[in-house]
Each structure stands twice: as C-alpha cells, then as structure tokens.
Amino acid sequence: MQHQDQTYEGFSGTLVTDPAHTGPRPGVLVFHSIAWRGPIEMDAAERLAAMGYAAFVADTYGRAPEGPEDCREMMNALNADRAELRRRIEAALNWMRGSGATNGQHGAIGFCFGGKCVLDLARLGEADVKAVASFHGLFDRPTWETAATIPTSVLALHGWDDPLAKPDEVLALAEEFDAAQADWQILAMGGVSHAFTNPGAKDKAGGKNYDARATERAWAATESLFAEAFRAEA
Q1: What string of pLDDT tens digits covers the 234 residues of the chain?
Q2: N or C, which terminus of the chain has less Cβ within 10 Å?
Q3: Nearest to 60 by CA among 39, 45, 81
Q4: Which among 77, 32, 79, 45 has a CA at the least distance from the CA of 198?
Q5: Which of 60, 77, 73 is nearest to 120 (CA)?
Q6: Model pTM?
Q7: CA R_g for the chain
Q8: What residues have CB less than 8 Å from 81, skipping those under 6 apart?
C-alpha cells in the first residue's frame, strides 16, 4: 500500500469477516503486540467478526519478523520514531477505509504495543474513528502534536500491577484525554499484570501474567464500547 510516498506491504492481507453478517459493516483494526501478528490477534479478529464487524489485522512492522529479537528491534525503532509509527497507523486506517467492506464507521483494538497504537489512532482526532480499546497498552504520549479535541471514545483496559504503565502514567493518560474532551474510560484491574490476555505470559514476578478473568472483563467492556459507539451512528 502507498501512503505519503512510502510503500507498506503489510496492510493489505488480513481481513476477517463472518459470513453470517453480510454487506458493509463497522470496521475494527486489530493492532499487534511486540510479537507481531499471532494467535491472539487472529482470535480477536474472529471474535470481532462474530460480533458483526469487519476485522482488519494490521501490521505495523510491514514484514514478517525473523524472530523475537527482530521484533524487539522493529518495535524499539517505532517507539523511537513516533512520527513514522503515526504514518503506519494512518496507512492501516486508510487501508480499512478503502476496503469497501465497511460502512464508514471505524474502530480499533490493540494489545501491548498495539494498545499504544490505538491510543495514537485516537489522538489523530479522526471523526470516523468512533471507538478504540487498548488492552494492556503503553501510555506514553507521542512527539507529534495531537488533536486538540478527540471525538473518539477511548477505553484503556489496564492491569494495575503492570510495570510498563505505572499509576502516574495512568493519571497522565486520564488528564490528557480529559483535556481533549474525549469520552474516555480506564478499567484498572487490581492484581492484574501486563500481557493479561496472553495465555503464554507466565511471569507474574516479572509483571507479565495471563489472567482469564481480566481478559473476559476486558472483552465484555470492549463489546459494550463498540455496541454503543456504532449504534449511536446507525
């Protein structure tokens, strides 16, 4: 895909829909964690499709990584260049917009690094992005100037014991989106760590641990968020 004179190869391959739902429908981007697109992202897309949405699994890396270290290097490069990350997020949004599968209403979810991506998507201030849900995302603000007013409903699904998003960062996120007059929610869950949706996360002492109850609570909140946001524009 071409976007701002650059080619991004990873944005045109993964659209998930449910044949039980036909015609244009709200579209939801799925942004991946540090580990790139995997079972968690694809399962999320299937879940969104079953809700009646067109799910688009984005690829902010633009190519298949060669292993965990390659993933880390690519993520770190984008963390260090938030303007480039913004371009890739915009490219993913434009891919979804141009797919012909959506009805003009859009949203997004993201996991870990992808949770940061959806918050940056909301920070663009795009009117057609109705809602985003950040699953154990990272809250640091980008270097570029964010929209003065954010029309997107924002849901941050957060483990209070997450070492990558400390309480002061949670407060800063609330203050940021409050100042932008956004409809925001933070579901902060006690005793829950980073990566709580990942069944492979089993390092509670290190702050990364799967939590089935937190995962289901997060999904219930996300389903409610999208049902409200998309119904309001129906």
Answers
A1: 443 444 444 444 589 999 999 999 999 999 999 999 999 999 999 999 999 999 999 999 999 999 999 999 999 999 999 999 999 999 999 999 999 999 999 999 999 999 999 999 999 999 999 999 999 999 999 999 999 999 999 999 999 999 999 999 999 999 999 999 999 999 999 999 999 999 999 999 999 999 999 999 999 999 999 999 998 554
A2: C
A3: 81
A4: 32
A5: 60
A6: 0.93
A7: 16
A8: none
